[in-house]
């Protein structure tokens, strides 16, 4: 009997194991099946009218355990140094003051003169408004090395020593003068405020939807996360991606009556002390002066030093400007597409889909303007968000633009045209003649990072599916870029937020067959002022990088 029992339990265990395997198999295939059926049907958003729900709705939670693990690793990897606690009483006098701070160009290691291929190091010392040295880190600094006459420039890497001093490291990439520029973007106390705002006040930018039915119309507030009130909610969470979105339910109309999405406005309620941490010309993106000479003279590369240069290049900047032209350091030679026929030749027979915000719409507009044969097919779309389509019949070129859906800060936009990038990618066939270019960053500044991570995880899954189905599809991602910072822009969309997002974006798509256009460095290294929408000479360089990825130089 005992023997039989053991036998049965042994077989039982094997049977159980088999069942589990079969179940896993079925579940996996169901997932595939779900994706396939979903992408072949029209998406309808599920609408919940459950009126018993009154708590805050903050679905920043990851979709799966794997996603959660990745999210926490990513958050660790972008951890910013500790900054002074808040809401400690902050006296401006004790915060970082760019006017009192200085930088010093350190002598060349091993002595002698500077050569192309060397690394230049600068020591930055931060002082407060009373002139006392700061003892802790966490300030946000950026650095650039440039030569205005040569239209040359390269971004520096800033290292925080956590004791009030910082290093900026530059690769010397051209002969002639090279001038150092160091900028304090935010004092560490401002970072404390920025961090807290995204945890506590992600709805400081809010949205509105108009609901309409017959002659009745109502407007309510919408967001990723709504503060608790007595009002019931409409749940517009996307079924395919799980991307959350909510509006307060209109009093009379149903959730299905939502017709537009728009930026509502902003709610900023700062104390005087907090406001003083974000002042133009005082402590918001202000240059730091050199304590001695700010420039060096660089001699030609020493023979036999190119290996040194290559090793610098691997961990250093992604490129630099020379004669106003972006030179990539990643091994690709950036081609120049100076004439419309150069561009047409590259795009002949191709479909280029552009998705994202206004910063990538600039690419669409640049190409549309540069190619006289690209004619707009008028879809009578909303002016900012599209969708737009331009066609060159003779050369069989199609170029489209579509915005990235919520949380888009936009004037009233039809909800029927809102599409998540991941869902759009799932509806593409792809292939050697298909180019996908997207960006997603400028509307995410005011949310906890978890929300951005989740969005990118969804997009990446769709990119992986697309590349599995059609490996020849070219996927190109534009990163975020530094911009002009007013007080308002700083507290809702600071470069600090963009930088943190950027690090996540790069980590997220690492190792995939996608290409990055490093808008961050391309704006940072350029002499033109930082701008949310970079000026044409910078866009031209981005387009050259984009087209180089689509049509690489023969033999490379
Ligand atoms: C509404 O939500 C509550 C709380 O989550 C739940 O208990 C209830 O069953 C829901 N009602 C409907 C009709 O879905
Ligand atoms: C801060 O740390 C750096 C790197 O360890 C060191 O070189 C520098 O002397 C320190 N500065 C101060 C003021 O302690
Ligand atoms: C909103 O809808 C999604 C998708 O159906 C669901 O998973 C989520 O729990 C809902 N959220 C709330 C707060 O009702
Ligand atoms: C603004 O902040 C003050 C002090 O922190 C607080 O008492 C007040 O309720 C806030 N107002 C709003 C509209 O949030
Ligand atoms: C494109 O224009 C730039 C800037 O005017 C010039 O330096 C470069 O030689 C041109 N390249 C080609 C291939 O025409």
TrEMBL record:
GO process terms (BP):
nervous system development
Q: Where is the signal peptide?
A: none
Q: Does the keyword Zinc apply?
A: no
Domain NXPE C-terminal: from-to ranges: 326-551
Highest taxon in the source lineage:
Eukaryota
Protein family membership: Belongs to the NXPE family.
What's this protein's name?
Neurexophilin and PC-esterase domain family member 3
Give the originating organism. Lates calcarifer
Give the classification, highest ranks.
Eukaryota, Metazoa, Chordata, Craniata, Vertebrata
Gene that encodes the chain: NXPE3
């Amino acid at each position: 009997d005992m023997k039989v029992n053991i036998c049965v339990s042994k077989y039982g265990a094997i049977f159980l194991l088999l069942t589990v395997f079969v179940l896993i198999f079925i579940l996996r295939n169901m997932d595939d099946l779900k994706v396939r059926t979903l992408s072949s049907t029209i998406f309808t958003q599920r609408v919940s009218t459950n009126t018993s729900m009154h708590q805050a709705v903050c679905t920043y939670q990851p979709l799966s355990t794997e996603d959660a693990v990745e999210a926490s690793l990513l958050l660790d990897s972008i951890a910013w140094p500790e900054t002074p606690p808040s809401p400690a009483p902050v006296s401006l006098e004790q915060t970082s003051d760019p006017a009192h701070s200085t930088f010093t160009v350190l002598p060349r290691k091993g002595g002698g003169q500077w050569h192309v291929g060397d690394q230049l190091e600068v020591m930055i010392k931060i002082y407060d408004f009373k002139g006392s040295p700061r003892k802790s880190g966490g300030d946000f600094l950026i650095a650039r090395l440039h030569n205005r006459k040569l239209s040359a420039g390269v971004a520096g890497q800033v290292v925080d020593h956590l004791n009030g001093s910082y290093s900026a490291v530059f690769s010397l990439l051209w002969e002639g003068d090279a001038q150092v520029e160091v900028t304090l973007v935010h004092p560490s106390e401002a970072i404390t405020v920025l961090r807290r705002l995204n945890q506590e006040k992600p709805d400081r930018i809010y949205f509105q939807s108009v609901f309409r039915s017959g002659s009745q119309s109502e407007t309510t507030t919408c967001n990723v996360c709504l503060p608790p009130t007595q009002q019931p909610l409409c749940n517009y969470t996307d079924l395919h991606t799980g991307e959350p979105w909510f509006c307060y339910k209109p009093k009379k109309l149903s959730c299905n009556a939502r017709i537009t999405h728009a930026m509502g406005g902003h709610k900023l309620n700062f104390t005087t002390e907090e406001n003083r941490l974000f002042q133009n010309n005082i402590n918001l993106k202000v240059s730091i002066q050199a304590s001695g000479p700010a420039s060096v003279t660089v001699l030609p590369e020493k023979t036999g030093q190119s290996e040194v240069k290559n090793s610098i290049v691997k961990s250093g900047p992604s490129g630099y400007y020379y004669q106003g032209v972006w030179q990539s350091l990643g091994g690709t030679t950036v081609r120049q597409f100076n004439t419309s026929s150069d561009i047409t030749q590259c795009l002949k027979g191709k479909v280029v889909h552009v998705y994202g915000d206004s910063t990538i719409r600039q690419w669409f507009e640049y190409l549309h303007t540069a190619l006289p044969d690209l004619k707009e097919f008028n879809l009578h779309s909303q002016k900012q968000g599209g969708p737009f389509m331009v066609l060159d019949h003779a050369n069989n070129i199609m170029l489209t633009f579509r915005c990235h859906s919520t949380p888009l800060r936009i004037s009233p936009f039809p909800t029927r045209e809102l599409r998540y990038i991941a869902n759009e990618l799932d509806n593409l066939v792809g292939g050697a003649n298909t180019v996908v270019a997207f960006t997603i960053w400028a509307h995410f500044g005011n949310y906890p990072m978890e929300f951005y991570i989740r969005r990118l995880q969804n997009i990446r899954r769709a990119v992986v599916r697309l590349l599995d189905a059609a490996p020849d599809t070219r996927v190109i991602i534009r990163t975020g870029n530094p911009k002009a910072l007013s007080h308002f822009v700083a507290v809702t969309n600071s470069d600090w937020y963009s930088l943190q997002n950027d690090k996540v974006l790069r980590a997220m798509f690492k190792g995939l067959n996608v290409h990055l256009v490093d808008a961050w460095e391309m704006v940072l290294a350029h002499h033109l002022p930082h701008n949310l929408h970079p000026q044409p000479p910078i866009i031209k360089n981005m387009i050259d990088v984009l087209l180089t990825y689509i049509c690489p130089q023969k033999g490379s």
